[in-house]
């Protein structure tokens, strides 16, 4: 099959076929004839590289529509395949946002730099310029700010345009002010540059305003270019901010050593305040309301709250008139969740809703997803809860009286899309209404518990989104085989505008084929679980292929989504290009099913049940497909997946023989407190062993590679060193790669970690030496592609 290798600097004439026919050695056998082994080439590695997210996006350029809404929601724009598209749903129109050819020519002329119409170097695009006609946009290019009038065809340099916001700055709704952090205090500046002043002035070291806890952020954020992140929320009328003050003064420190600072010289130490599960001292926070007009700093009365999940800081909402702020409180153990109403003028608070449970109480199906709480103009509150065993919507009065349960049944509400208060209706995404329980469908229900209707009734996975204002949805519907077909839908599901319908022809030409969506039985013999199976490139059913379990165990992430992309898109596909059969499994203890399914991991953060489910699923697949060699099974994963990888080799040495564990937390008893205390519960002598890989070190029989970032302030690198120490005590062989100068996600070195992972699996599962191919540093990822963890 032909491959486009120009981007990867591979000589096609020197490259051989993508997969060499032959059998790799089976577990316990010795293959002496090299002709029987799979010998990969630079062509295979180049093809694997094309499967990764940054390159895959180029092969399916219109697969993702990410709308940028106008202020009133009446229109939106998006970028697709190098073109900028403007959509006005009420008019059922979709057109180029501007004349790309004319803009390219004009910008080339005024900037003195050649610009191509299909590769416009535009950043910080502003589609609604105050005081200008709707056809005027502003953007940055070539270290300057420009204004383009599509009607006049003029491109002029703008000298007095407000400085574009930096990623750690927050603009007020009226665009008059910008809030930011400086030396631990919250400041504001006017967009016209005439004013700048502090709203707080008493910050101290480790007791500052608007920031985040040091653990997992202090070293990482600067390495990612985030200088001083501000977490705050403007009031609707742009006069006040709600933020917090974090107290970390009494916390113990952990020390990271930067061995190879960029300017040379001695190693540099980085000290991070990092508590552990069970420690009495934890980071705490207080809420503060800051007034831009009076410069008043109002401290909300009450005891400081233990700062659990970092996403707690995102749990605050202003009312539409700016007279009320609602905040979520979660107890340290995660088993109590409260919605509180706060008076921003006095600081007085009232608890409206309290929910408790024997395990953690979640405010949404995912840790990383904003709480599914919505506030109506009527004062009523839409609340998401798993109290009946599923994830459903409830309606409360402004004073916290439950008015009714809005949705019910053996399925869950995945996301709230939009609310029509006049018609008393809410649109949402639901899981569990299709044969595949993970497929998302668009639904609608009356707020008062009346009519329920499915807007979509197909087997497509609907990743829909809606503007803050507007009476439509942007539906991005896909399968594992078909990229997202995007359309604008009206209230009844009618198509208002067709947006994009990409195909996979270029991806298939690069060797890709869609994975198989499968159902298997969990290790208990009766619970259905789901996963994905990728066939190797150049698949031949007469051969037998080694298996790689590409893993993340949960409890907060779904690994095997039913749509065209997920958090790990490209990684499994790249392994398939290297001649592996690749499996991803969502075992018990992971989200998006029932509360009982999720709680299988509670008290067992080591996820022994889910690991048993992986083994059961792969063995079942092996019985279905003779071409799966379940005597040669490897595993790899990042962060929680790194822990899971090592645990697989240590607790199932009869099944897993090769593993690459990236950034693995191999001892959760000394990891971030919220993660353990929320998801595992109290650590006892009975359940402690489930948290610690080192206790099983003597069981290692296979080949294990540990890869860690030297400056990982999330999963500190001594986690892997402790496992290495235990393996040395057990006289077991282990390989380790410590990457200098990088954090948890290996930023700037991820391409190297990727290639070393491939090499290890090729060397020990295929039984041959990998080619001398070098993976290039990754270009910026597409907007939808997120780091695995």
Can you put this structure into words, describing what you see?
This protein is α+β, with helices and mostly antiparallel strands. Among the domains are: 90 residues, no CATH class; 98 residues; 91 residues; 270 residues, Alpha/Beta hydrolase fold, catalytic domain (Rossmann fold), CATH 3.40.50. The protein is 14% helix and 30% strand. Strands 37-38-40-39-41-42-43-44 form an eight-stranded mixed sheet, sandwiched between helices. Strands 13, 14, 15, 18, 19 and 20 form a six-stranded antiparallel sheet that branches. Strand 37 and strand 38 form a beta hairpin. Helix 1 runs antiparallel to helix 6.
The CATH superfamily title of the domain at 511-780 = Alpha/Beta hydrolase fold, catalytic domain
Structural class: alpha+beta
Under CATH at level 1, the class of the domain at 511-780 stands as Alpha Beta
CATH topology of the domain at 511-780: Rossmann fold
Main β-sheet, in a few words?
A: 8 strands, mixed
Report the uncertain regions.
1-36
Please give the count of helices.
Answer: 12
